[in-house]
């Protein structure tokens, strides 16, 4: 059994999709990031970065194994099940390259676009333009990578695709029309049609925020610094 500490965000979807794709038994434990659950000591013991998602894997030798950071979780689950990762050294190298590309480029850029679009529209034109262009650039990188390939690593769907896909799913709400990127558009739709992907994105749908954040949510989401990182 895997305890899955989750809130419905693109980073969370990466792991919920992988759990569904692998058919692993898991228990979803909601961590309400707007109400500050991520700063509770019991969660910090699992995820010292105060962020979703995190897991505790009970199906291991010895003590239950906590894993934080979505990329690390994907690698752990892929190695645990022997699924969705290449079996050869060159393929594994490429998988890690594209996984780290997502966690260092596509995800952060899309996340910043999302912040300004959803929480500060029109307030910081330079920042909005800066991150929108970087997100557009990352989509261009994906477009070039998918030339002649069904998925990021070739013919086989992998955790590299699972990592990037949620940040492309939300392209339109972030102001990006994928008509500029036909290969990315095709890839996005092919993955969206997978039943496990649909189940992963639907997980915790009722928890999604309706309307703008209140004062407490804004404080917990946007006003933390190094002095508050420990709870």
TrEMBL record:
Pfam families: GST_C, GST_N_2. CDD domains: GST_N_Ure2p_like (cd03048). Residues 198-231 are annotated as: Disordered. InterPro entries: Glutathione-S-Trfase_C-like (IPR010987), Glutathione-S-Trfase_C_sf (IPR036282), Glutathione_S-Trfase (IPR040079), Glutathione_S-Trfase_N (IPR004045), GST_C (IPR004046), Thioredoxin-like_sf (IPR036249). Residues 203-231 have a biased composition (Basic and acidic residues). Residues 88-213 form the GST C-terminal domain. It comes from the Bacteria. Residues 1-85 form the GST N-terminal domain. This is GST-like protein. It comes from Halomonas ventosae. The lineage of its organism: Bacteria, Pseudomonadati, Pseudomonadota, Gammaproteobacteria, Oceanospirillales.
